[in-house]
């Protein structure tokens, strides 16, 4: 995908540039239920999220820390399935574009595409287990704008990149603090929407500070035109401000939001209110880091 195509066609890149600096939020779909997830997504949208990532639960989430692993387990125990996830997205109405974050096996195991069904008729034929097109087709049909697959190496991403291009979806890659040289060039040639800059080595999870690796990574990526958003460990408005000041176009927050959901347990109203307030705090921090004079909200 060329820079010209990305700029012209990417809902995700447009959302980041139009709402710069952007707040990107993550929650796990189906935690604690798909019905609750609907309320939580709407709350984040009201609170100021510019993009919303929805985690499609997978049993071996290698990039996730304990907080999101627990959320994924709760979602799986609640019976969340890929088709239930897509039906949820079908019904969502948000200002913020939506992305799915999941693992490659979920894409490979999804059912046949409309095109395959049309060509095969009612006959049962073996399907290509390595075909990611059915998942991408369904994601586009549901209204998703992009896909993040943490365990997919850029060197093996051509089939997914082609399917995303065919259906108008962005494909976001994670750039680790240690990524450089030819591997970095390969990732940046495949990425669209934004580059997901990993703030620190290890798995996801809220942290008390911003890693020094964040600043180094942003410096290393300055020459690339695609927006850069920093995640892994961001949990407070001050973190968002520092990251934007360092040159990021957006901040990504997940574990801090998943913690709110876990703390409130069943019943979506208190959690939704807390998520909306947290999103507003994080968006204020990001804007403050971008040089915008943002007054603090009045205390009730």
UniProtKB/TrEMBL annotation:
Pathway terms, separated by semicolons: Amino-acid biosynthesis; L-tryptophan biosynthesis; L-tryptophan from chorismate: step 5/5
Single GO molecular function: tryptophan synthase activity
Residues annotated as catalytic: 53 (proton acceptor), 64 (proton acceptor)
Keywords, in A-Z order: Amino-acid biosynthesis, Aromatic amino acid biosynthesis, Lyase, Tryptophan biosynthesis
Gene Ontology cellular component annotations, sorted alphabetically: cytosol
UniProt-listed InterPro entries: Aldolase_TIM (IPR013785), RibuloseP-bd_barrel (IPR011060), Trp_synthase_alpha_AS (IPR018204), Trp_synthase_suA (IPR002028)
Class of this enzyme: lyase
Keyword Magnesium: no
Superkingdom: Archaea
Catalyzed reactions: (1S,2R)-1-C-(indol-3-yl)glycerol 3-phosphate + L-serine = D-glyceraldehyde 3-phosphate + L-tryptophan + H2O
E.C. no: 4.2.1.20
Pfam families assigned: Trp_syntA
CDD domains (UniProt xref): Tryptophan_synthase_alpha
Known partners and oligomeric status: Tetramer of two alpha and two beta chains.
Family: Belongs to the TrpA family.
Function recorded in the entry: The alpha subunit is responsible for the aldol cleavage of indoleglycerol phosphate to indole and glyceraldehyde 3-phosphate.
Name of the molecule in the record: Tryptophan synthase alpha chain
Source species of the chain: Natronococcus jeotgali DSM 18795
């Amino acid at each position: 995908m060329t820079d010209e195509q990305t700029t012209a066609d990417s809902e995700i890149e447009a959302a980041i540039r139009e709402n710069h600096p952007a707040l990107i939020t993550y929650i796990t779909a189906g935690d604690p239920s798909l019905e609750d997830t609907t309320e939580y997504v709407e709350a984040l949208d009201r609170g100021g999220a510019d993009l919303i990532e929805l985690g499609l639960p997978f049993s071996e989430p290698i990039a996730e820390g304990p907080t999101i692993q627990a959320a994924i387990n709760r979602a799986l125990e609640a019976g969340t399935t890929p088709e239930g996830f897509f039906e949820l997205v079908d019904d969502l109405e948000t200002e913020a574009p939506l992305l799915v974050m999941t693992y490659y096996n979920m894409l490979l195991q999804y059912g046949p595409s409309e095109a395959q069904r049309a060509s095969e008729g009612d006959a049962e034929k073996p399907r290509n287990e390595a075909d990611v097109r059915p998942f991408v087709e369904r994601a586009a049909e549901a209204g998703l704008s992009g896909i993040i697959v943490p365990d997919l190496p850029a060197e093996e991403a051509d089939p997914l990149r082609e399917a995303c291009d065919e259906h108008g979806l962005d494909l976001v890659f994670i750039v680790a603090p240690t990524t450089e040289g030819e591997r970095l060039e390969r990732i940046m040639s495949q990425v669209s929407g934004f580059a997901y800059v990993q703030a620190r080595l290890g798995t996801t999870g809220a942290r008390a500070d911003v890693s020094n690796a964040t600043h180094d990574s942003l410096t290393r990526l300055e020459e690339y035109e695609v927006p850069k958003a920093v995640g892994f460990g961001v949990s407070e408005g001050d973190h968002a401000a520092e990251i934007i000041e360092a040159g990021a176009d957006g901040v990504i927050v997940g574990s801090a939001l998943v913690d709110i959901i876990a703390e409130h347990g069943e019943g979506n109203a208190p959690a939704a209110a807390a998520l909306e307030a947290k999103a507003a705090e994080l968006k204020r921090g990001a804007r403050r880091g971008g040089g915008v004079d943002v007054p603090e909200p009045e205390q009730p």
